[in-house]
């Protein structure tokens, strides 16, 4: 299968045409037009919001391969896709091909979007020159929102490749010539950027914003700051940033874990950052969708006739499933895994799993039947939208489903981890934070939680989400967890190699960052 979302990107960064959108709505889907910056009237300062909306369009238009590649090396996820995209399956087994198109695409799309976000910042700065004091404050907020989006892209790049470029301009030749920043420098840069952004961002939950519901707020920035400090293993900084979110008393866990990842859970009080997609609830209007098909089963009998199936490229691992069964997990396991009869039979070849809970069957609670298919034994339930929740006459797999990027449960568990690693906290204990997450899932409370307990809880709660499990394991040098089902993980496999095309084009990038 070829990359079905495969525009041509230039190797060296270029100035990207400015997105100019016509309206601000509660979704980020209607932003197709482009207008040259020279054509804009910067004295019409009311139009600068269009650059912000354009930035939300940029951040939401992720290629289908990006979340897959960011996640696939964890012990919670297998590549699936048997018979297609062999280098993707090889990546899951820690065998890396510098020439593989997915590696280059992740690099190009992320950096292309960073440059485009920089263009939107420059556009707002031009409007700001003609703004009154109130409008200047609004401009500063918009720029801060975009900086959070830009920092998240930099964060992903540093996790995958470690030493990467910090790009803050629209023509980054000088930044490239200066060479890449180390991962530590990048994470400190992200923390500093968030520290600058936090005071000028709205003191709201994302879903409390009325101008752009679901937009970035200061708590999105705190979350990213906490993640940067986690990567630096600065657990006090991590605890402090998480505590700012917890002590705001603005966030709570959505009560229904199963529905959190479906239409009812969109923009809940748990959400800190969410990529938004929609078809306006209409069968005929334009739609703005993420391509969820790679996550889905290649064969199903949908409860709602004519709903399309997926590609079978993202499979919950047998290790994850057994881990969850051993813990007597119910709602989180049911939510995370779509079962096939073939997968269930394979699971039951292990005598320890001969008898399974009733929810382990190939029919979801919403009536979709997951048929056997060759590419995988299971599919991701967190990326599944029940066919009955599709808009009438819309058939795309997962069509219109949002994608959660950061949520309060992760903050609670990061806070708990920081405390178990020696940080001091405020307002809540590690036990309390972990038990909020466990109790939502119907699990009994724990006392005296250890770092190991917290990491197990993160595995159960956050499996299959943005590679969180993989990056936790390499941060902790816990290579034994990643050596599973015949895989052998070693330290030189932590990072993907730089794409060969980038090494050829960018001399300051230096040699590859890991063995092939």
From TrEMBL:
Keyword ATP-binding: no
Gene3D superfamilies, sorted: 1.25.40.390
Regions annotated as coiled coil: none
Keywords assigned by UniProt, alphabetized: Cell outer membrane, Membrane, Signal
Every RagB/SusD domain range: 270-481
UniProt superkingdom: Bacteria
Subcellular localization, as worded in the UniProt entry: Cell outer membrane
Domain SusD-like N-terminal: 96-205
Keyword set includes Membrane: yes
Gene Ontology CC: cell outer membrane
Family: Belongs to the SusD family.
Protein name listed in UniProt: RagB/SusD domain-containing protein
Species of the source: Allomuricauda ruestringensis (strain DSM 13258 / CIP 107369 / LMG 19739 / B1)
Species lineage: Bacteria, Pseudomonadati, Bacteroidota, Flavobacteriia, Flavobacteriales
């Amino acid at each position: 299968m070829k990359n079905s979302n495969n525009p041509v990107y230039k190797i060296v960064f270029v100035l990207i045409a400015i997105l100019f959108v016509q309206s601000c709505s509660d979704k980020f889907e209607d932003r197709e037009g482009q207008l040259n910056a020279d054509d804009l009237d910067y004295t019409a300062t009311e139009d600068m919001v269009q650059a912000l909306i354009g930035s939300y369009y940029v951040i939401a238009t992720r290629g289908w391969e990006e979340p897959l590649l960011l996640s696939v090396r964890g012990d919670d996820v297998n590549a699936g896709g048997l018979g297609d995209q062999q280098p993707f399956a090889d990546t899951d087994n820690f065998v890396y091909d510098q020439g593989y198109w997915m590696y280059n695409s992740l690099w190009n799309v992320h950096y292309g979007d960073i440059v485009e976000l920089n263009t939107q910042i420059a556009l707002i700065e031009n409007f700001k020159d003609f703004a009154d004091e109130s409008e200047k404050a609004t401009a500063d907020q918009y720029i801060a929102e975009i900086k959070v989006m830009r920092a998240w892209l930099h964060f992903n790049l540093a996790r995958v490749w470690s030493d990467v470029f910090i790009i803050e301009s629209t023509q980054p030749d000088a930044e490239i010539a200066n060479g890449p920043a180390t991962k530590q420098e990048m994470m400190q840069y992200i923390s500093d950027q968030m520290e600058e952004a936090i005071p000028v961002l709205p003191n709201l939950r994302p879903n409390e914003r009325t101008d752009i519901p679901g937009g970035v707020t200061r708590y999105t920035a705190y979350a990213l700051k906490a993640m940067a400090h986690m990567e630096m293993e600065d657990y006090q900084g991590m605890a402090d940033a998480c505590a700012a979110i917890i002590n705001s008393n603005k966030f709570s866990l959505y009560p229904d874990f199963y529905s959190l990842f479906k239409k009812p859970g969109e923009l809940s009080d748990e959400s800190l950052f969410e990529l938004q997609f929609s078809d306006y609830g209409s069968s005929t209007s334009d739609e703005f969708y993420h391509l969820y098909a790679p996550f889905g089963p290649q064969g199903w009998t949908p409860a709602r006739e004519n709903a399309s199936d997926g590609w079978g490229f993202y499979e919950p691992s047998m290790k994850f499933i057994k881990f969850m069964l051993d813990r007597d997990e119910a709602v989180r396991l049911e939510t995370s895994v779509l079962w096939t009869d073939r997968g269930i039979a394979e699971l039951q070849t292990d005598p320890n799993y001969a008898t399974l809970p009733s929810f382990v069957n190939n029919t979801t609670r919403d009536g979709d039947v997951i048929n056997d298919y060759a590419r995988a034994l299971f599919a991701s339930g967190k990326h599944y939208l029940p066919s009955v929740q599709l808009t009438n006459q819309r058939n795309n797999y997962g069509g219109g489903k949002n994608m959660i990027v950061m949520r309060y449960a992760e903050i609670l568990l990061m806070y708990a981890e920081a405390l178990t690693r020696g940080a001091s906290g405020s307002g809540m204990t590690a036990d309390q934070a972990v038990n909020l997450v466990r109790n939502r899932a119907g699990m009994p409370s724990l006392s005296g939680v250890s770092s190991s307990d917290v990491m197990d809880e993160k595995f159960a709660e956050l499996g299959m989400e943005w590679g969180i499990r993989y990056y936790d394991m390499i941060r902790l040098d816990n290579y034994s967890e990643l050596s599973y089902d015949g895989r052998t993980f070693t330290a030189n496999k932590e990072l993907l190699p730089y794409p060969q095309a980038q090494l050829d084009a960018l001399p300051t990038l230096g040699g590859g960052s890991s063995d092939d």
